[in-house]
Amino acid sequence: MSDIIYLATVYSSHSKWRIVRWWVRRKRFKAINKTAAMLMKAGNVVFSPISHSHPISQELPEHLNTYQFWLPQDFAILKHCTKMYILGTDNWIGSIGVLKEIGYCCRHNIPVYVIDGDGEIRYPIRAKHYLHFLKGDKYGYRECDETGSD
């Protein structure tokens, strides 16, 4: 069986301005699509939850577009993946959703790597790195179960 890459990135914005939140999400959607396409052209099997979910999110009320809503969807796919790549763009480490995805991977022995926009691996994420991220998490992260609930 070939590897299945789960391609994650930061998505949301915490701006008080709705137009800024929309613009940031759209910018990140385009960046992840570009990276997914490049990885696929290189022969990789890739699932990008942002590429899949962004168009659907446009049909939902804004209050549902939270990590609590999307993580059960994401974990249902992530459990079938053999590795996770994180597109290391602006403030990915501040994303509670990405941190929870890393936690899921750590608990299920799925290797995690941070990549750049060209798909080059920058560095792996190990469990000890994950714990370091949690100590600096400004969102008051708590361990979640596999449904994404706290």
Describe the structure.
The structure is a single chain. This protein has helices spanning 18-41, 49-57, 67-78, 96-107, 127-135, and strands at 4-8, 45-47, 83-87, 112-115, 121-125. It has 150 residues and is α/β, with parallel strands linked by helices. The protein has a single domain (4-135), classed as Rossmann fold. Helix 4 (96-107) runs antiparallel to helix 5.
Quick one: CATH class? Alpha Beta
Task: Please state the average pLDDT score.
Answer: 79
Shape: globular
> How many domains would you count in the coordinates?
1
Task: Please report the distance between the alpha carbons of the first and last residues.
Answer: 34 Å
> What Rg, in angstroms, do the CA atoms define?
15 Å
Strand adjacency order, main sheet: 2-1-3-4-5
**Contiguous runs where pLDDT drops below 50 for at least 5 residues:** 137-150
**Strand proportion:** 5-15%
- Which sequence of SSEs, written as H and E, runs from N to C? EHEHHEHEEH
Any idea what the CATH superfamily is called? Hypothetical protein PA1492
* Protein structure class: alpha/beta
CATH architecture: 3-Layer(aba) Sandwich
Largest sheet: 5 strands, mixed
Helix content: 40-55%
List the total number of helices. Answer: 5
The number of E-state strands comes to 5
CATH fold assignment: Rossmann fold
